[in-house]
Amino acid sequence: MNMFRHVLFLLASAFSALSFAQLAPFTYQDMVQLDRLSGLSVSSDGQCAIVMMRGTDMQRNRGVRSLWLKDLRMLEAPEVQLAVVDADASNAQFAPDGQTIYYLSPREGRSMQLWKTDRSGQSAAQVTRLPLDIGAYRITPDGKGAVVALSVHPVDGKDEIEFTVGMSSGSRGGSGTVYEKVFVRHWDTWADGTRNHLFHVDFATGAIKALTPGFDGDVPSKPFGDEADFTIAPDGKTVYFSAREAGTTEPWSTNFDIYSVPMGGGVPTNLTAANKAWDAHPRLSPDGKTLAYKAMKVPGYEADRFGIELRDVASGNTRALAATWDRSVEDMQWSPDGSSIDVTADDLGCHRLFRVDVKTGAVTTLSRDGHIDAFTRTANGYVFMKSSMKSPSQLYASTAGSKLVDEGAPIITRLKSVLQEREMGAYEQFSFAGWNNEKVYGYVVKPAGYVEGRKYPVVFLIHGGPQGSFGDGWSFRWNPQTYAGAGYAVVMIDFHGSTGYGQAFCDAIGLHWGDRPLEDLQKGWAHALKTYPFLDGDRAAALGASYGGFMVNWIASQWKAPWKCLVSHDGVFDQRSMGYTTEEQWFTDRENGASAFDDPAVYDNFNPALFNTDWTVPMLIIHSDLDHRIPVEQGIAAFTALQKRGVPSQFLRFPDENHWVLKPKNSLQWHETVFGWLARWVGREGGR
Which residue(s) pair with 270 in the sheet? Predict the structure, then answer.
């Protein structure tokens, strides 16, 4: 570890303890109530930004959304709420003219439709009156229409909207559903036969044109797709989109392709049929001559590296951009002059912004630390949203002459004032030699109110994915600052399989769920205990969700000595059962090297169910009924095993949550249960 950085960390921690002595620690109650920024849109003249702010209505147990305008010419002036916009508004976008603001709203009890206002926000007008909800949209370059996504029953040769409305109003004899192919369920919903399809809406006439009639696939993709899955050419004549044709192999396929279709309708053309892996996020250059998109190389592998491909629209020739850059691209935008492409990517425990030169492929780092959540490049610089381990996403604007875009302070006052009233735990990144003697990174967080010379109980957080990262970012579910606020120190390790350290590092977890990552976790824990004397290794708990929940179930038999208690959220208990019942079959096939239906024995290589006879550490199991990724039976089975063995245990079940716990009251209950479990077995004395 860099000793200079460690000394700075200690000095900063001491200064923080003095500076924030009068501040209350940040708690999970604070986190649940905290406003959340998202949905950045910047006007074409670079003068204004729109963001969505989601507040929390505890009485109604839901989020309340509002739209806020920030004048980028007067950064010190407070942001202004668009009062005309109701509390359910979302997905605000500036029109090409830079004056009109469009947004989605189910205003006055209607379906989710497109509305508009202006920068003053004094009046609102309904733009569309479709009989179905709009799920996503993009305004056409001339501002005279929009491409919208609707959930319809795919029928070629018929009006899909009319057909879908008729289907929903028809009577059915029974409650049963007959399926002829999978998916029968995905993420948290059961298949109902509908697909997300694209339509062009003319604002002047109200005319609607189907762009993907009869297509057996979803645009945007389910369950998390949005308008990033499609785009409109600058001349407004062509729509490009990313989609996977379902057929009968959808649960086993990651073969998304890039399609083009004329705005006037027609048969979509598959532009990337030769690549059987994932192609995504089409982006046209400002002159419309070059199509950029993200592409993977390995079929059936969702965590492969997303590289950048450039396609000449006229000739169809393609080339890889920055082919040797060992990072996986997430967001991607052309510069205004078309000379470069700005991208975000995980990088050494952060999620940074980079600029890629179109001619040379040279990559320039544009941000320091933290997690870049959204960005837009204007003639005046960058407007972006960024979070960190000490702050949720906030809005920033880069200043002239800055070498890195994130050298300034947040420009949204509403969040800034709230955060200044709470003490956050100081944190730093460290590294050590992990599996195969390769460098592995981790983070340590001091408890709020830290006092030099004291020892503090520790929570050891294990991230999910497994191709994910517990880095310098903010989470409203697994947030290390809530533990620091309760008097715990926190240790997190980005084990082999984590993203942001090169594709080989990410790939290393395949077929090795239970050994290589476990070795990293063990060595990282030992390194942290040796390096940070305030960690009390005799009072520690391990917690994780999804893959992290699997790892908790695994270490319950393989590495139980350090832990006073365990918390397993949505964890895999029986690998064979997981392979048979999860919806996205490509994931379990790839991670285990074979399908459970073809070679179930390989699923026993790291199967916690086979070792439950060795479980003795008290464990809290959490699972939800709507979790179709790791079905609730996995949690029930783990809890049953604990009860069978007489191990102190609890089972927290949510009937109305999916793989995540999202409702405010449920989040409070989750944290109350988890923190109660920690207090029972680990305690908090010695903290504040």
Answer: 259
